[in-house]
Amino acid sequence: MPTQLQKRKYEKAFDRFDVNRDGVLQENDITAMAKIWCETFKVGPASGDAARINDLATKLWADITAATDTDQSGTVSKSEWNAAMEKPDFVDRVALPFALAVFDVADRDKSGTLSVHEMIAGQSRAGITEDETRRMFEALDTDHDGTVSRDEYAAAIREFYLSDDPNAVGNLMVGDLP
Asked: Where does the record place a coiled coil (predicted)?
């Protein structure tokens, strides 16, 4: 059973995925999110990056519904979402690959790391303030080299979904929690 902290994190993540803000997740929310990421990072619709993010968005939706849509409605409610989020296999098969695809798109210079500016560009479109993103960036940069590596990012994503530690760095992945 998730802790209160985990419930708040899951609901904040749900709200980020619910692009049209109608209180349920639908396939068009996920495709809209993929489009937003491509627009944010000026990824051309015919590029390999766009194809990858769109393919992963399609897979993300299929995996989300397979793991969460218990009433077979074609939509995912917050309660269905929350039930799936505490499963490590869902995080590793679904949430993490999509997050890493977004990381790769945000990594405009293909260095394998994100600069604070690359991270701010992506997070601002998701409704996270620059101050929140700077705090997130500083916490994620565990080796203090001025960049966030793919490994640091992946560890934070896993920690966001699976940790109930109130001091976990991963808690910052969706901005400040209420």
From this structure: none
Whether 38 is covered by a domain: the verdict is: yes
Q: How many domains does the chain have?
A: 1
Asked if residue 178 belongs to a domain, the reply is no
**Mean pLDDT (whole number) for 125-129:** 81
Q: Would you state the pLDDT for residue 86?
A: 67
Beta-carbon count within 10 A of 23 CB: 11
Number of Cβ within 10 Å of residue 11's Cβ equals: 17
Q: How far is CA 85 from CA 9, 22, 110, 117, 122, in A?
A: 10, 20, 30, 29, 23
User: Which pTM value belongs to this model?
Assistant: 0.84
C-alpha–C-alpha distance, residues 34 and 54, integer Å: 6
Q: Considering the domain boundaries, does residue 16 fall inside one?
A: yes
Res. 178: pLDDT tops 80: no
pLDDT at 17 over 70: yes
Examine residue 54 and state whether it is found in any structural domain, yes or no: yes
